[in-house]
Amino acid sequence: MRLGIIGAGAVAGLHAQGADDIAGLSLAAVCDLKADAAAKVAEPWGAAVYTDYRQMLAAGVVDAVVINTPHSLHKEMVLAAAAHGVHVLVEKPVATTLEDARTMEDACAAAGVVMVVGMIQHFMAEKLALRTALDAGRLGRVLMVHDYRSTDYRPGSRPDWFFDKAVSGGGAFINIGAHCLDRSLWLGGAPAARITATVLNRFGSPVETDGTMELLLENGVQLRITIASDCPNNIDEMLVVGELGTATVDPRRGTFMEIDGERTVLHTTSPHDIQNAFTAQLADFKAAVGGAAPAVSLAHASHVVELVLAAYAAAETGTAVELAPVPVP
Fold it and tell me: What InterPro entries does its record include (predicted)?
């Protein structure tokens, strides 16, 4: 399978390395508006360089693409790929509206191509270690999840498009919050039934820089997500409280469980964890193209977008938003 990458941003190199690591997959082309950025990712693998994704698709040099671009651009690129019979792995969030997400899904289904949404948290070793422990019943029933993450949304701290709501769809919630919602719903074990939220716009930012979300999942699990900008130390930690004990997950340290005063190490962080996750995600995508069910369903990816939008509505009105039950696939 010949892979193309559209958007030579921060994780493009991880996708490129992943393609080289997987038998039957090769990096064929990289596209970015900046030719030098595309070339930096492409050259180690001898891949072609493009500055127009339409030309890359029309050239017939790829069988599948990774779309790694600003959020609101996903729709037009997915539709173009589908029109050329090219399979798609689109980075989260899948879109900035549910209508766009449905349009993308329908277009790929009609064209007979596979669309998978890149939700990298499902492939991170420290999250998988906890998921395995939960599936084995080691913590009993999950009761509560707290997801606490820092970021930096000071203007100038990241590319300008992140601060343009028409392009990004919002600020810290749709970017960092999408990761938190994804992994917290996954570990919490159910879709959300209700959400409340608050946001802060600091530093003169036109999009939210900080905020909290509180959710009740359909299975009764209580979930709280906190995102804070410009912290003294980087924070990326989940706390899961179960009937029998607790667990913490931190990609910089690992996964730890405590039951009745006894601490167990479930995973110790390795320098290879992030690359391994991106490689595993690409392998999952390749398997989906071959007919397997992907690790992350399109329904889950769309529910994450639904919750981000509901959080914005809840923050604006100061009232809870009730969610319709998510159909079981």
Answer: Gfo/Idh/MocA-like_OxRdtase_N, Gfo/Idh/MocA_oxidrdct_glycsds, GFO_IDH_MocA-like_dom, NAD(P)-bd_dom_sf
